Fold these 4 entries.
Entry 1:
Amino acid sequence: MKNNNRKNISKYDELQLFAEVDGVCPNCPTILIGDKGGKKRKDYEIAHIYPLNPKAEEIEILKNQEILNSDLNHQDNLICLCLKCHNEFDNPRTLEEYINLLNKKKDLIRLSKEKSYWINSNIENEIFEIIDFLANEDFDFNEPDILNYNPKTIDEKTDSTITKLTKRKIHKNVQDYFNQVKNKFRDLDSLQPGTTETISIQIKQHYLLLRKSDSKKNQKEIFDAMIEWLNKRTKNKSYESSEIIISYFIQNCEIFE
Ligand SMILES: [Zn+2]
């Protein structure tokens, strides 16, 4: 069997792999830059997900399994792990650990790809008013809001890929804030006509872009990606407000059909 050579990884590829896991081991809570006696040190290694030079028994264990890139030195097959987790992952190789790490890496690749779309999808500045309003207004949740939306819409539009917890969150957001957000948009329209329509189109457009980029992307992944984008676009002002706004647009049918 031919021996694959470990390729020297460039500084930028390494930075990218480090950033991809946010500087924390994806298998445990270890921070990847350690501190020993006030001196920083590198507490990670770059692991090959599918082994670079698998032993016969490893080939057997991993046969028929997905490999993220036929070039085993490609970024897709590499991930930062703390030293302990790297050692555990390699010795002994198990199918369960392989599948687990492979799925984590697939999520990381997906998230990196979604980030590349952030810059392309704009959103009108008026959205900040809604974000601030949701984040700072004192709402009275004891006063029952008169429903002027159909609470069945969410159930009808979501499929089994959305988790129960996420569905519950969307329901709760719509129940508590739908009318508030609607009224706020109306106020904005009276100051600047067309605001609601423009923002609705921008939301829809980003949703379609995510769908087009990966037809296998499920509803939960789309929901999370929409929030991440809106939160980033609104300068990380309030993640919760972004969640409420995205829930609003699910109820309003711009997201999911
Ligand atoms: Zn670890």
Entry 2:
Amino acid sequence: MNIKLKKSLAMQEKAKKLIPGMTQLLSKRPDQFSLGVWPGYYSKAKGVEVWDLDGNRYVDMSIGGIGANVLGYADPDVDSAVVEAIRNGSSCTLNCPEEVELAELLCELHPWAGMVRYARTGGEAMAIAVRIARAHTGKDKIAFCGYHGWHDWYLSANVGTGNALGGHLLPGLNPCGVPKALAGTSYPFRYDHLEELEKIVKEHGKDLGVIVMEAVRKAEKPADGFLDGVRALADKTGAVLVVDEISSGFRMNTGGAHLVLGLKPDIAVFSKAIGNGYPIAAVIGKADIMQSAQKTFISSTCWTERTGPAAAIATIRKHKAVNAGKHLMSIGQKVRNGWEECAVRHGMNIEIAGMYPMSHFTFKHEKHLSLKALLVQWMLEKGFLASTSFYAMYAHKEEHVSLYLDAVDQVFAKISDAIKDNKIDEQLVGLPSTAGFKRLT
Ligand SMILES: Cc1ncc(COP(=O)(O)O)c(C=O)c1O
């Protein structure tokens, strides 16, 4: 490697001893990239630039804070709203008015919704949505599609089934610690496979209280009739339809992707992008359903702090003013086209998927995890945080994309040579990437 990572790697070793699994988020674990070369820690981030602990500077063409930093790092407008909230006291005995202003803003953007509750992270907001839906319908069973976080209601699908969640973004999620009594309470169906939801309804319809799905995770349109079919099955069974917009929201438009797709939720859940990295999550829904939050107990101290809603108001207003959705779509499309052209030029077989602003590809090769690690390693040497996923930020400009694609072109050439010469693993400085969830030792 032509870069020094001494302090970054030392911090990782120390962290492994103090924090089980090293980090709080699987997607930020260095082994997801290449353990031994991925810097793992940052000292500063601004716009699209990131500095690691050893002072190396990178342009971030990877996961943009795993989709949280939709505008870019340390956005001046969002930060000044947060600084003002801090100067005026970010927490107090009384409530902050920003949460009312944000509720108004979210309901303006989503006129079908009448009320809003808040949390600070996506997974807990999904747990709130599921609790409200169960409280409203009085029925326990859940049909779901996609990834929804770490909570018991979701992981319970893997209890006694081995790997029911395997087809929903993250394979290998171990439900250890989830009560075995929850087995048989949540059932997965795949996107575009209405027949799978129909089967769940046939078998469990009378106990089905909630249907949960991600709005979208691909660039192509949903299959004809799928979204209307899901809505019709929710109406038929009386289940509350919860649309998870934690990743899809504020990527293609200012608001939920369901607005663009024509999907009609009862509840929608946002986090990540709405705070540009500051912790905030919102559960929005039809007023009569949201009122069921009062039938049960949903309450937490730090859900009332001020920086989250202050950041969300500033992020959403800026997102709308600059039409960030249009920019993210265009940048994402350019990156994807570039991947495709580089792969063709160097005779490599890759498979691209995801929404345009949240795209990823897989090397179609038996050593794809080693090839991914080589890509990470050689892109770092060229000054980019990069892997096989790209999350667009408003701060990404065309010049970043063209410099990045020049580097990808050169690195794909080297990877193609490594494949031809059968010299993949011997060129790795770090370890092959890890796929999905595994214990970190
Ligand atoms: C669609 C979706 N739902 C839920 C979550 C969980 O959100 P968080 O990581 O904030 O708990 C994620 C995170 O990636 C997500 O993409």
Entry 3:
Amino acid sequence: MKTTGDLQLLKRINRSVLLRLIRSQPDLSRARLATLSGLTKSTVSALVRELLDEHWLTEAEAPVAAQGMGRPSTPLNIDTQKRVLVGIEIAVDCLRLVCVSLGGVILTQTEVALEDRRPANACKQAGKLMRLLVKQLDAKQLVLSGVGVCLPGAVDDATGIVRLAPNLGWRDVPFLDMVSAEFAKLDIPAVNIHLQNDGDTAAVGEYEFGGGTADDPLIFVNCDVGVGAGIVLNDRLFTGFLGAAGEIGHAILQVNGPLCSCGRRGCAEAFIGARALRQKQGVEKAGEYLGVMLQNLDAMFNPRVIVVGGRSAVDHPELVENARKAQQTYAKTAGMQAPTVRAARYGLQAAAVGAAALVLHQFLRPLLKESNHVSWN
Ligand SMILES: [Zn+2]
């Protein structure tokens, strides 16, 4: 039995419990943390000390008098100044890199043209951007928590292999291993590097920096040249068997409908993808079909929140509004409550910010990563 491994995991779980409590309830005292977490006061004290030293937490400089009896306490909060998360989006034509605080504030953002779509070259270019950023972080004495990378493709969680990214022309690329090797040159440990589909990270970004569990289930619908969705269900991403869950662009909306890029007819993408939007009456018609799409998602997942993002949604806010109205009518007709439908809070940076949020998401759920790598044989 690996006793040390288990104890370390236990400690990571306990740390994540404290961080999640403090994120949801600012200004908690150590005593209150002990009560809420069920951990002993001495364990809380020791873990809080570590989290303060590592800049996950800050504490008020002067103790605050307790209400009623009891000793004054020092309120604890998430450190939004010292520790940062980095997200990299490999899009079809560009690379986006964002540096985000633990509170979800974008500190820096960079966008450059993607020089070469081949995996090794994309990886090298991301490495170059990262090297510049690491220098800036060092100069400002900021602490890097980790790097999330996202791209438009199906990512197998267990192996970090990109199964299929049609718009990049990739199939079965071990991209997590490749970026981990590239970032190892910058002393970023592989354990702090994550890879995920862009729609999935966008959903995680909205979830972590938005309403959190109060928004669960949350679906992010990404409307661009392609159309996809990221789904957060029961406090974790739902990615499906091979990472391809949420490929709603190729859900059929009309039998024998217009031809889609995939070769089928009547796919959602043929109605609400960016190409369809460019046609006459495009946005109005697309809004109606997007409403159908949202209704179908509601029927399948009964989400609390649906966020609509991607370039089409950013360029045409009326698309989101029309879709929201159409979906509301569907819900009303059946006497059902419609989910909240809103635009993405980070606009075109949604996927990149989400990739950064994924670092935090994984850190706060140590068992997620473990369960992905556990073999039960
Ligand atoms: Zn299709």
Entry 4:
Amino acid sequence: MLTSQDVKEYAKACGADLCGIASMDRFEGAPLQCDPRQIAPDAKSMIVLGFRILRGALRGIEEGTYFTAYAGMGYAGINFVRMPVVIWELCNAIEDAGYETVPIPNNFPWNATNVSGWVKGVEQEYDPAHTRPVAPGRAAPDVFIQLRIAAFCAGLGEIGWSKMFLTPEFGPRQRIGAIITDAPLEPDPIYAGPPMCARCMACVQQCSGSCLPADKSVKVTVAGRELEWADIDFEQCSKFFCGAAHTHNPFMCSAEDEEGFNQPVWEAQRYKMAPMYEYGRALEGASGCIRACMIHLEEQGKLKNKFEKPFRVRKPWRLERDW
Ligand code: SF4
Ligand code: SF4
């Protein structure tokens, strides 16, 4: 009999840093297009895995001298290399034990939905010009799993004001993948440890694109808990995390460059810097929602992954336009 303990031990042995388990009833009330039960109606459990972003992957951006480590090892490399391999290994072991597994890596570029989870420009709904349900009452493909909600349902932590998932181990410094299975695994309790996000608003103040409002939020009820986060401007973030702010992008050297980096998301991600694994260059190094938040949570002593020295030891750099 496969147990939750077996799954967690093997997940860690394969290379996951965090593993929690949700029962499928915790997704009751999810919008149809985001409901994992639409993918596997007979599933019993969702296994949610966290993969740490090395703190040092952000060092070169913090110093303004080396941007490849975060885009490669801290972003695309986790989503497109490490995470799928670990999910694969764990799925193999669970299927060897006689239970089906649906691997859910962090949104691949060939997913039929966009990175916000909605099909081509349509909020909350599918676009009938782009996809359609195969039968009445079913979600249109592709269902988009909200991995942060999944991580919450699996007890790994909470969602902060920045909408980043915060764990007691790493704060905002992980990426999330999942597996849906018909294995009846014991679920973890919903996170009930010390609150992580005290609404310090460092994420709001240090976001290079002003994408996070301090006074406008989204509220949802998940697994019987009311969650609230900033009503983030995703379109703005999709440009600015790839370097649309001249203040945060040393590869922007002229007015023409600025225009290039401010193109619609997919063109902007390809402007000047080649994308990593078909994914945009995360040139801005998540200045607000990861770096500022991590610094704050470390200062508060809230994270289990402790370091000898504080992350920010020099005044943050900032470029001014000179064209
Ligand atoms: S920076 Fe502060 S307000 Fe923002 S998510 Fe982190 S803890 Fe919450
Ligand atoms: S990734 Fe960057 S632009 Fe997007 S919300 Fe975070 S800090 Fe702001």
